[in-house]
């Protein structure tokens, strides 16, 4: 341990130590009286004395505020240890990038890394030393609004994207906190903050790997989550927080609780008092308590009673002081905060250009009967509540401002250099019912060759506390799509949302569907680039799209069951695993997405159809662009372990590769498949491979593959 840190710890009282392990909203540090505190932050039972000394603040307002908070804090503090400033910089700071689920659809870690780096540059000059990102919760249920913050339903993809975020934040100059440890995304029924119950095997196989990948990539902090997991709130899980995170993975950084999650162990019905919450959390090595005050109120007393060892507190304190040291706060109490530099870099042309490129590469073309790309000569109109909407920034838009964003209306007019008809037709709120504006909107666009109809869910309807029980496009918007189609226009639907939505009702009336997610500051320009073919849609789904909400949770790497529906249909449904009122398959599967050209892939070949332990083989195939324009596609490698000591999924994504070819161009795509990539947690609980037959598949989505067979020998 650094000598200075050791000396600092030795000189601190128990009370000061407890306060260093606490984080509050910045406004609380500046509040002068208890009334002001409780007035500003419900449930925060901090007395005035508590705000004299804390270790960290979150949710402050940029460079000037950060400097003022630090100065005011240090002027009152006896300990003179600078605060460390943390914020949710999740997909951009002032320049807002596509939401992480959209970035997951790029299948391009280098793009995620670039976006994270720019986010970090804008954030650090605005006073942020640590971001509460990446969020790598595995998600399988789009009813849960926080799927927006994840990169999807595949643990491998989440790990690759999460590591890219970690690298990008570090390159840009801030520290990062991977969250929400663990399995918060398994909330039952997709209901926010709901119970999670995950088998040991599923935890190890699906829910934990991405957090571990980020820890091993160097994430500086981990955040423990709100959820009840297998009967115990996460902050009460010694097995997870100590045995797995600390002992098995060797993580020695700061573990911070989610917002008041330590205190919520009482509401969960797990502990009775705030004092027990403090004892349990600190002994589970939760180093910092966010926005509840059990540490401040009870750690000194718990040490006096021998229920918590001072050495345990000192270990957490060391981690927090080392974090501040890493952030450079002992050299400069403001870190890299610099209001002038902040103004120079935020929304600069380079950052906007990256935001535009990222938005174009994360949109997913779900349907196209040839209507796209459009030509500037065509008579085009815009309709729908999201055509002129500038708040397409998504949740956690941090300092992003809708007025600085580009709507589809802005982007299309800029692309065409002329005015276009734009008729909202109805409201865009989830529960809007009014359809009275539809006839006028139809009249406005009637006669146009193509109507670009922009629909979806509001930006604020995905993210935290935004679960939905019905994922359909709201009725007025669906009616508008249908009415425009029946008026004789070709319909290009552009859909906004932070999660997969049910498009089944509008699909038949659309000649094309472009899923734009919440594309961020440059969303409208990116959509225009795609509509007019300046950019090709290259996004592929990182999360399955259900055809009905009742199919959720729905994900590609499911199990076959003993009565699989083959082929998928709703005829003769007796005694097989299916629904009587819809197909089993998602409307659009994991890995799916269209471009503007056509592709052919030959059947995969193996350099060695038989391998042994430690062995490997090359999987290759011929790829051809059979369309009339240059294009880019994503070739995906899946496996299926046919028979094993525990049943294996019908598909497991193992690798992916982008390929760009001119019209008529051909190339060979090649992947290395190793015995190590065939390993899983077997019935014995060991992580190993088992001899037997494997399907090896190459394709353009989880459902569009060609297969060959690999034998793994003992
Ligand atoms: C929120 C979220 C978490 C976020 C934290 C600080 O409740 O659950 O993702 O980082 O509080 O804003």
UniProtKB/TrEMBL annotation:
GO molecular-function term, one example from the UniProt record: beta-glucosidase activity
> Per the UniProt entry, what is one GO biological process?
glucan catabolic process
Asked if Hydrolase is a keyword of the record, the answer is yes
Catalysed reaction, written as an equation: Hydrolysis of terminal, non-reducing beta-D-glucosyl residues with release of beta-D-glucose
UniProtKB keywords: Glycosidase, Hydrolase, Signal
Q: Which InterPro entries match?
A: Cellulose_Degrad_GH3, Fn3-like, GH, Glyco_hydro_3_C, Glyco_hydro_3_C_sf, Glyco_hydro_3_N, Glyco_hydro_3_N_sf, Ig-like_fold
Against SUPFAM superfamilies, the record matches this protein to: (Trans)glycosidases (SSF51445), Beta-D-glucan exohydrolase, C-terminal domain (SSF52279)
Family membership, please give it.
Belongs to the glycosyl hydrolase 3 family.
- Kindly provide the name given to this protein in its UniProt entry: beta-glucosidase
Q: Which organism is it from?
A: Candidatus Borkfalkia avistercoris
């Amino acid at each position: 341990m650094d000598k200075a840190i050791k000396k600092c710890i030795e000189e601190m009282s128990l009370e000061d130590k407890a306060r260093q392990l606490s984080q509050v909203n910045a406004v609380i540090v500046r509040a002068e009286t208890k009334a002001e505190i409780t007035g500003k932050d419900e449930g925060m039972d901090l007395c005035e004395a508590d705000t004299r000394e804390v270790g960290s603040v979150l949710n402050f307002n940029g460079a000037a505020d950060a400097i003022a908070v630090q100065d005011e804090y240090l002027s009152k503090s006896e300990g003179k240890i600078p605060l460390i400033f943390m914020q949710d910089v999740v997909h951009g700071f002032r320049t807002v990038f596509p939401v992480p689920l959209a970035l997951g659809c790029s299948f391009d870690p280098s793009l995620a890394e670039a976006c994270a780096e720019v986010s970090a540059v804008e954030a650090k000059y605005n006073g942020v030393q640590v971001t509460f990102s990446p969020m790598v919760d595995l998600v399988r249920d789009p009813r849960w609004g926080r799927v927006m913050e994840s990169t999807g339903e595949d643990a491998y993809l989440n790990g690759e994207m999460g590591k890219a975020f970690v690298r990008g934040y570090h390159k840009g100059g801030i520290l990062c906190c991977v969250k929400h440890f663990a399995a918060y995304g398994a909330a039952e029924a997709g209901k926010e903050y709901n119970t999670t119950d995950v088998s040991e095997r599923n935890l190890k196989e699906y829910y934990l790997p991405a957090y571990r990948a980020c820890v091993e990539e160097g994430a500086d902090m981990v955040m423990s989550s709100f959820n009840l997991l297998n009967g115990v709130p996460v902050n009460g899980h010694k097995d997870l927080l100590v045995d797995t995170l600390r002992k098995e993975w060797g993580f020695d950084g700061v573990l911070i609780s989610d917002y008041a999650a330590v205190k919520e162990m009482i509401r969960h019905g797990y502990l009775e008092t705030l004092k027990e919450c403090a004892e349990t959390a600190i002994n589970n090595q939760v180093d910092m308590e966010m926005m509840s005050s059990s540490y401040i109120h009870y750690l000194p007393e718990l040490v006096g009673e021998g229920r918590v060892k001072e050495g345990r507190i000192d270990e957490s304190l060391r981690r927090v002081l080392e974090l501040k040291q890493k952030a450079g706060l002992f050299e400069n109490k403001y870190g890299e905060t610099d209001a002038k530099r902040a103004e120079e870099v935020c929304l600069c042309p380079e950052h906007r250009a990256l935001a535009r490129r990222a938005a174009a590469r994360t949109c997913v073309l779900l349907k196209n009967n040839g209507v796209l790309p459009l030509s500037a000569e065509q008579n085009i109109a815009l309709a729908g509540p999201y055509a002129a909407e500038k708040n397409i920034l998504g949740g956690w838009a941090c300092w992003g401002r809708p007025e600085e964003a580009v709507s589809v209306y802005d982007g299309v007019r800029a692309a065409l250099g002329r005015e276009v008809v734009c008729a909202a037709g109805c409201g865009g709120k989830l529960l809007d019912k009014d359809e009275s504006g539809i006839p006028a909107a139809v009249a406005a666009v009637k006669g146009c060759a193509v109507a670009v109809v922009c629909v979806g869910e509001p930006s604020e309807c995905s993210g935290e506390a935004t679960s939905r029980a019905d994922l359909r496009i709201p009725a007025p918007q669906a009616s508008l799509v249908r009415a425009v189609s029946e008026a004789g226009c070709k319909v290009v639907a552009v859909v906004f949302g932070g999660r997969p939505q049910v498009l089944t009702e509008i699909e038949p009336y659309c000649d094309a569907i472009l899923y734009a997610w919440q594309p961020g500051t440059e969303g409208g320009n990116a959509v225009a680039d795609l509509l007019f073919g300046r950019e090709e849609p290259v996004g592929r789904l990182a999360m399955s799209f259900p055809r009905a909400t009742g199919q959720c949770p729905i994900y590609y790497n499911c199990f076959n069951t003993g009565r699989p529906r083959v082929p998928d249909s709703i005829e003769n449904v007796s005694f097989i695993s299916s629904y009587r009122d819809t197909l089993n398959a998602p409307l659009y599967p994991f890995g799916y997405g269209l471009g503007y050209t056509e592709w052919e892939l030959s059947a995969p070949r193996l350099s060695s159809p038989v391998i042994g332990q430690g062995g490997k083989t090359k999987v290759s195939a011929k790829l051809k662009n059979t369309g009339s324009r240059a294009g880019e596609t994503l070739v995906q490698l899946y496996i299926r372990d046919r028979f094993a000591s525990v049943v294996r999924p019908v598909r497991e994504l193992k690798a992916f590769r982008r390929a760009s070819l001119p019209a008529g161009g051909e190339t060979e795509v090649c992947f290395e498949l190793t015995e190590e990539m065939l390993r899983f947690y077997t019935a014995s609980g060991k992580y190993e491979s088992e001899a037997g037959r494997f399907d090896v598949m190459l394709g353009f989505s989880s459902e569009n593959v060609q297969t060959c067979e690999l034998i793994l020998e003992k």
